[in-house]
Specification:
Shape: rod-shaped
Low-confidence stretches: 1-24
Mean pLDDT: 88
Oligomer: single chain
Distance between the termini: 34 Å
């Protein structure tokens, strides 16, 4: 029996590497992915409020986490033009909250993408501040007027700054961002930053409980040995099906359920569960003739942070001893 238990634990540990985490829902791109074709001296931060020819939402439609931001430049510059992305939340016609900001991103000619991590709420917008001496990259859009928001570029994360709007400029702001869901509100994007969106305490893959069980009968009870790969609560239950006594309708059967038992099982240790037979099962086995058996089916169940619970099943044969 001890040899079987050792093998069981080794098998569980080897299988742990195969456990995976469920996928997260789709991310959303917000802002504007136009290619900048101009550089202008702009003394304030800017963001888009409305741009009819922009196919992307200018504000985040949902809460989540910005995990990447991007700028595309069509300006042929032999050097980088650093810019900072700031997330802006409008508080009114003349005020805005700086929700978060990135470090300066070195923007070269072509497509530029930078990793970040900024929690956002629905309605937050991505803004742009130039941190180079030449000016801000902009998309000139002749015949396509837009509404732009402006804000004080001196603001930092968590501060409220002066803000306003400009209506009619034929400009778009070449900054976009990826907003990922954050199901557990831990501040990490569920698709690329958080492998366990079911728990705010973990960003690595959600642990999956692995079980193995072995059962043997004692007088009037069944003993189930359980091994797991992690500390977890395990519930063991059992059901037996046996023929009805002769006075009942022929061909029918009855069932007996064992009272379930729950214990915390430590990783790498074998825990003993003893389930007593109910009177109904004892009576049935006692009246069972030799050569007949009653199958007792046992189920061990452990919950997981994500996905269905883990189960493992075992069974024992209860043999009749009554002579004909």
């Amino acid at each position: 029996m001890r040899k079987r238990a050792v093998v069981t634990i080794a098998a569980i540990m080897a299988t742990l590497a195969l456990a995976g985490a469920p996928g997260a829902s789709a991310a959303t791109q917000v802002g504007d992915n136009c290619a900048a074709n101009d550089v202008e001296s702009v003394p304030f931060g800017v963001f888009e409020v409305a741009a009819p020819f922009n196919p992307l939402p200018t504000a985040s439609p949902t809460a989540g986490v910005i995990t990447r931001w991007s700028m595309t430049s069509a300006v042929p510059a032999p050097f980088s033009l650093p810019h900072v992305m700031r997330v802006v939340r409008q508080l009114g016609p003349e005020a805005a909250l700086i929700v978060g900001e990135t470090g300066p991103g070195a923007v070269f000619t072509g497509s530029n993408t930078f990793d970040t991590r900024i929690p956002v709420q629905a309605g937050d917008r991505v803004g742009l501040v130039s941190t180079n001496e030449f000016g801000m990259l902009l998309c000139q859009t002749p015949g396509q007027p837009a509404v732009l928001g402006i804000f004080d570029p001196a603001g930092t994360t968590g501060t409220t700054v002066g803000a306003g709007q400009l209506s009619g400029p034929e400009l778009r702001i070449p900054v976009s961002a990826i907003v990922e869901p954050d199901a557990d509100n831990d501040g990490f994007g569920d698709e690329t930053q958080d492998k366990c969106p079911a728990s705010a305490a973990l960003q690595v893959a959600c642990p999956v409980a692995l079980l193995d069980s072995f059962a043997l009968t004692k007088k009037g009870r069944v003993v189930v040995l359980i091994a797991t790969n992690q500390a977890t609560s395990v519930t063991v239950s059992g059901t037996a099906t046996f023929p009805n006594p002769p006075r009942k309708r022929a061909g029918t059967s009855a069932r007996a359920k064992l009272r379930s038992l729950t214990k915390v099982v430590q990783a790498g240790q074998i825990t003993r569960f003893a389930l007593n037979f109910p009177r109904k099962l004892k009576s049935s086995v006692a009246s069972l003739q030799r050569g007949k058996v009653v199958t007792l089916r046992l189920t061990a169940t452990a919950p997981n942070l994500a996905g269905p619970a883990t189960t493992d099943r075992a069974q024992v044969k209860l043999r009749g001893r009554k002579k004909k």
